[in-house]
Amino acid sequence: MSIKNVIILGAGGNLGPSILSAFTSDPHFTVSVLSRHSSTSTFPPHVTVHRISDDYPEAELVAAFKGQDAVISTLSHAVKGGHKPIIDAAIKAGVKRFVPSEFGSDTTNPKAAALIPAMFAAKIEVVNYLKEKEGTGLTWTAVVTGAFFDWAMKVGFMGFDLTSHKATIFDDGTTKWATGTLAQIGLGVKNAMLAPEKTANRYVYVSSFVISQNDILASLEKATGQKWDVTHVDGEEVKRAALARDFDMSVVMDLIRYMHFVDGYGGNYVEAGKGSNELLSLKTENLDETIARVVKG
């Protein structure tokens, strides 16, 4: 199997531009994007854009997917109609590989899947559907990445406020977890398509480094030249409080932080022996250099 023609769905989101950049930087690939008519996202002039109606009609999907070897989705699982019709259209168009919007936590970890079923059930359902369709000639690769590290740092998701120099540390801050930068994730997805046989019908696990909150704090203090104001919180209390609230995105964010910063929820998939960096020809990144870029903006 050879993958050359690739179309990206959601290329204008948080992660999509980094995946698009990785593919456009490799002359092996011919890359295009699928974009809704109502979208205001813009793309490089050399990238072909397939415009589609907002409700993702099958005929328009099939037309856009014709001649494509791989479809890569970074779309939200709340997309109208869900992902199954998109997968069905890929099959009808003769696509060889589908990369679902798995990016993030390890949904194969039973404790993680049980903690946020409202969020993870949709991802698990999509992969199970892809498994059911393996006999059609469509293969799949699901990419686990942990939090998008540089993006998560900039928006305060990791518990660090870059403006006030305040840190919220779970427990003693020593729990290690794996995470990938946006660029590393993009490169990992691209390299997975360069090794289609080895990455077929399986999860791959991308990481930039395995770190703790204390590691981040030390790196931030080095980059800013200042001591930070640190508050420690009880991880189990954060989980209890989140589960007691009405379900919304703040609950999701607290529980995802908990899964990263507390052992047992799949956060350190590298230590668990699942890491795919060698398979994907990815090098470990330098935390201090990455933090310096984040701080610089």
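The above is record 1. Record 2 follows with the same two-line structure.
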Amino acid sequence: MALRSIKNLAPLLDRVLVQRIKAESKTAGGLFLPESSVKELNEAKVLAIGPGALDKEGKRIGMGVGVGDKVLIPQACPHI
């Protein structure tokens, strides 16, 4: 239910709604990795995009990403 309600959100202007991709716990060779060795990825899937920002003349600047694209997101700062 939560994912359905998130997909109903519409980002404004040049905002992007993303969902973090879970790290694989299985290697390409079929070995399962313990949870302690699986790091959090800084990769996400774009769920929704806004229409884009406006320039000084009022024209819409298009977005560089689309729904379904994979993007890199910054790691959270440990000091905040």
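Residues 2-7 form the longest helix (6 residues).
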